[in-house]
Amino acid sequence: MSTHLKATAFKDTIRQFMRYAMVGVASNIAGYLIYLLVTYLGVAPKIAMTFLYGIGVIISFFGNRYLVFSGGGGLPTGIKFTAAYIIGYFLNLSLLVVFVDTLGYPHQVVQAIAVCVVAVFLFFALKYVVFKKDAP
User: How far apart are CA 113 and CA 98, in angstroms?
Assistant: First the structure.
C-alpha cells in the first residue's frame, strides 16, 4: 500500500472514530447516569449493567451502522454485530467481577472505566470485523 493510501486510510479511521465517539459519548453518558440512578435506587450493579447494555446495543447498531460505518445489512452483519457485543458484554462483566467483587473497588469507578475499555474494543471489532469494507 502506498504512503498516500495509508495516510488516507488513517484519516478515514480517525474520522470514523470521531463519529463513533460522538454516538458513543451521547449514549454512554445517558446510560451511565441511568446506571447511577438505578444502582442508587437499589438495583444490583451487574443487573443494572446488563439491562442498560442491552439498550445500548440496539442504539449502537443503528447509530454505528448508518452514521459511522455506512455498513450494509443482512444476517451476516447482524450475527457479527451480536457476537461483538456479546464479547463486549463479557469483557464489561469480567471487569466488574474482578475489580469490584474480588479487589473491592467502587462499582461506579469501575463501570466508568469499563465503558471506555469496551468502547475501544467495539470500535475495532465493528470497523474490522462487523462493517469491514472489502478491498477494491
Answer: 13
135 vs 90: CA distance, rounded Å: 31
> Could you tell me the end-to-end alpha-carbon distance of the chain, in angstroms, rounded to an integer?
13
What are the sequence ranges of the domains in the chain? 3-130
In percent, the amount of the chain with pLDDT more than 70 equals 94
Amino acid letter, 54: G
Q: Residue 104: left (phi > 0), alpha (psi -120 to 50), or beta?
A: left
CB 5 within 8 A of CB 119: no
Q: Dump pLDDT digits (tens) for 110-127.
A: 999 998 999 999 999 998
